[in-house]
Amino acid sequence: MKKTSILLALAFVFALMIPSAFAQTGSIKGVVKDDQGKPLTGAVVELTSKENGRKYQLKVDKGGNIFSLGIAAGTYDVKLLKDGQAIWAINGFPVKLDENKLDIDLAKEHQAAQQNMSEQQKQQQAQNEAIAKENVKIKGLNEKLAAAKAAMDSNNPEQAVQVLTEATQVDPNRDILWFKLGDAQRSAAVKATDPAAKKAAFEGSIESYNKAIQLAGNAKPEIIGAAYNNVGEAYAKTGQTDQAIKSYEQAAQVNPPGAGGYYFNEGAVLTNTGKVDDAIKAFDKTIQADPNKAAAYYWKGVNMMGKATLKGNKMEAPEGTAEAFNKYLELEPTGPYADPAKQMLASIGADVQTSFGKAKSSGKKK
Known about the structure:
Blueprint: H1 2-22, E1 25-33, E2 44-49, E3 55-59, E4 65-72, E5 74-82, E6 85-95, E7 99-101, E8 104-105, H2 106-153, H3 157-170, H4 175-191, H5 195-216, H6 221-237, H7 241-254, H8 259-272, H9 276-289, H10 294-305, E9 309-311, E10 314-316, H11 321-331, H12 338-347
Parallel strand pairs: 1-7, 1-8
Antiparallel strand pairs: 1-4, 2-3, 2-5, 5-6, 9-10
Helix pairs in contact: 2-3, 3-4, 4-5, 4-6, 5-6, 6-7, 6-8, 7-8, 8-9, 9-10, 10-11, 11-12
């Protein structure tokens, strides 16, 4: 009685274990056909687990059928082998905890592959046509840029404006076209004798430069800086000094390597409008950005002379005036402003210092 109870207990345990052995497996059933739609007898379907590399091989019977129990659930790469050679494959075939259908019809598979290839060829052809069209457009735009340059070289900015306007109509999304159009409009404005035409050309250049700035984004600081600089000039030429100064400041912010030139132009505008203190500050910023820009020292000195006072027969200039002129002479001893700088020094009774180290008398008797 006791022995019978033990056997029944073992049988019960074994019965409980049988389902667990197959609890995480599924079955595969399918039909394999060749290019003619006939059973591909003698072939083997090989499944390789993507999780652990375990392989299963299912032989194709005379009817083209495959069947197997106990395939562990998971994801498999599947190959169809004939005489040991892979003639078809798919990746990522899922095996679930149930019967899984795996039919392979080589005729349909090859047809689908040809359709996919045809679609890829169509896409490639469309891409090639788009590239060819773009190349033709770029060639045409380059020809217009060349024609505009030739017109500018011939002092015919009006013709350049016409050509570049046509270019922006062909492709309105290229910053260089708007920048060059702004240049041509600005040159046409300088050349114009009619005040209304001059103003309209300057305003057109500002609009074109702003479009170039917008299109360039943050990727082209040199173009953006140059555009802001030229906008500043256009505003200055139309008497909009505050806007001009703002533009020069923007140019310096977006393109620090060119800040010396932008601040110098700002100083020039302020000098021309008699804003002496602001001009001195602008030339100080110029010198800070580019310590070797000789003209900045000269014009700083000129503006400081504007603050000089006359005491009796003696001209007294603010501190640093003589240093500014002498720094100019040090950098450009024979430069275009050398003689005026020496004359300014003489007028305030200062010695002329040169880079050769020895002071030279201004020639004024004391």
